[in-house]
Design brief:
Yip1_dom; single chain; transmembrane; two-stranded antiparallel sheet; Protein YIPF; 4% strand; 321 residues; 11 helices; Yip5/YIPF1/YIPF2; 2 strands
């Protein structure tokens, strides 16, 4: 026995008839072949269109259509409602839940107001917007700039060159007449302080304010009432605008009357009266010329009142000592 001889060790796994149950790894196989066109493994036919469902709260089935049908109908110029004649409204039938109105009738506008934290929709009518107690009614009569007022004041001193009423009929204003009359009152007070060394009579200032405001707003109101009775085509805002701007020329005249020369005062007041009265008559003649039976006597009365105002200015307010 050779002590150096190899010793055989029994290996229980050494069995030639033993087979591994795990299959060997296989190389990945490509889904594409050069002989066949490429096909996506994720491509699948479109899902079937589900049948129409019945809504328990409606009388008929709900009609559903795919997005492809809408897109095709959009590019082809056809409406999707053409596929369902019952859904297409008839041109002769009015829309549902609407009331057919005459052509000259409009629906009232609705405004949303917040009341107690809740938003409430309120129907407003034209009468509400035109209420005499609403600020929005008079807001449009002050929608002028300083440049517009200055241009209108300049045109009032050239009565025969510009058609003043035609220029302001789309945007008559209250701002100009009120500003002109107020400025004229303070101009007379300032001119009296410069023309006389004696203390100014404030009673004359209050009297002047009453006369000017009363004439500038009272006479147009009386004339408008007469125009409504005689059916003359004039509006109150136009008459107030004309009367207000007709007094602008007396503001520089008040400054010129500081000169303590009698004939100079009479001259400037006479020129101002001529321009102011001409401006008033020319612009009121335009809407009144259609009815001569009322226009001529009305304009004569208004011209006499305007001349009387000029004489009051000269003999009482511009008579500085």
């Amino acid at each position: 026995m050779n002590p150096f001889a190899p010793v055989e060790v029994y290996n229980p796994f050494e069995n030639k008839n033993y087979t591994d149950p795990t299959p060997p790894p296989q190389p990945p196989q490509s889904q594409f072949s050069p002989q066949s066109p490429r096909t996506s493994t994720y491509s699948s036919p479109p899902p079937p269109v589900p049948p129409p469902t019945q809504n328990p709260y409606s009388d008929g089935p709900e009609l559903k259509f795919r997005e492809d049908d809408e897109t095709e109908a959009f590019y082809s110029g056809k409406s999707t409602t053409d596929k369902f004649p019952s859904m297409s409204p008839s041109p002769s039938d009015p829309p549902p839940n609407f009331t057919t109105l005459p052509s000259n009738q409009t629906l009232p506008q609705s405004t949303t107001r917040t009341t107690g934290g809740a938003r409430v929709t309120v129907q407003t009518t034209e009468d509400d917007d035109e209420s005499v107690w609403s600020i929005s009614t008079y807001k449009k009569y002050f929608n002028v700039s300083s440049g517009d007022v200055l241009i209108r004041c300049a045109r009032s001193m050239w009565p025969f060159k510009y058609d003043f009423l035609e220029a302001v009929k789309n945007n008559p204003d209250f701002y100009g007449p009120f500003w002109i009359t107020t400025t004229l009152i303070f101009m007379m007070a300032a001119a009296a302080n410069f023309a006389s060394p004696l203390p100014y009579d404030f009673y004359k200032l209050t009297t002047g304010a009453a006369v000017i405001y009363g004439y500038d707003f009272g006479v147009p109101l009386l004339f408008w009432i007469y125009a409504k009775w005689a059916d003359l085509p004039v509006s109150l805002i136009d008459v107030l605008c004309i009367y207000g701007y007709s007094l602008f020329i007396y503001s520089p005249i008040a400054v010129l009357c500081i000169i303590n020369i009698t004939w100079v005062r009479w001259l400037v007041v006479g020129i101002g009266c001529l321009l102011s009265t001409s401006f008033l008559v020319v612009n009121l003649w335009m809407p009144l010329r259609a009815k001569l039976a009322h226009a001529i006597p009305t304009l004569l009365v208004l011209a006499c009142l305007h001349v009387g105002l000029a004489l009051t200015f000269r003999l009482y307010f511009f008579n500085f000592q």
